[in-house]
Amino acid sequence: MSATTKELLTDLLAQIVSGGVEVIDLAQPLNEQTPVIRLPEPYANTGGFTYHRLSDYDEAGPAWYWNDFTAGEHVGTHFDAPRHWISGKGKNGVDTMPVEHMIGEACVVDVTRQCAENPDFLLSVEDILAFEAEHGRIPERAWFILYTGWGKYGQNPEKFFNIGEDGMPHTPGISVEASKFLAYERNVLGVGVETVGTDAGIAATFDPPFPTHYYMHEANRYGLAQLTNVDKLPARGAIVIATPLKITDGSGSPVRPIALVPKK
Ligand code: MN
Q: Which residue from 232, 234, 164, 236 is spatially nearest to 200, judged by alpha carbons?
C-alpha cells in the first residue's frame, strides 16, 4: 500500500532531520567579487553585486547590523525566466511562473572529462540519448543539469571566463541541436549549468546565437546558471528547489537553489 501524501511529507522531513536525505547548497557566494557576464560594446552590462552598509551596531543603528545591496537580475547563481530572451517575449517572468515549476528532479549529465579536454565542449543530442540509455528517459519537468566541472572556478574569474587569444570566452555548453531537442523533444523545466550563462562561451557565433537561451525560453522553459556542488548530485533522483525572487516583470533573479539528495 502506498503511503499517503501526508505520510510522505512527514517521512521526508524526518529524513532531512536525520540526514538520510542530504541537503546540498547549489549556490556560489554572492559578493562584490562574484564574476558577472561581460557583453561587448555597444551592449549594456549588468553592474554586478554591490553592498552598502547601513549600520554595524554603531551610531547609525546602535543595536543592529544591516545593509542594502544592489544586484543585477543575472548576477551570481541565478534564475533565467523565459521573458529574458526575445524568443520568450510575453512569456513567464519570475513573478508569473507557476511556483510548482520551482521544484524538479535533477538529471545530471557528467561531461567533466570532455570539458577538461576541450573547454568549448558542446553537449550533443547523442550525449543526451546516451545519458537516457544509461539512466532512463528524462522525466517530465526535470532540471537537466550539465556537470562540466566549471563550478570549481566560480571564484576565479580568469579560469571561469577562460578568455582566449581571440578575445572570446571558452566555456562549455549545449549544441544548437541539443538545445532544440531539450526544449521540444523533452518536457524539461529547464537547464542548469555551472558557467556564467546557460549558453557556451562562443555561442554568440552560433545560428541562432545563444541557442540554449533561444530555444529554451521560446518553449517557456527556464535556466539556472553559476551552480556549484553539482558534483554532489547523483545522475538521477535528487530534487532541486530553486525559488527566484518575486520581482515584478523580472527577467531573472539571484537564487539559492538547494538539492535534496538521497544518501547511499
Ligand atoms: Mn542569466
A: 164
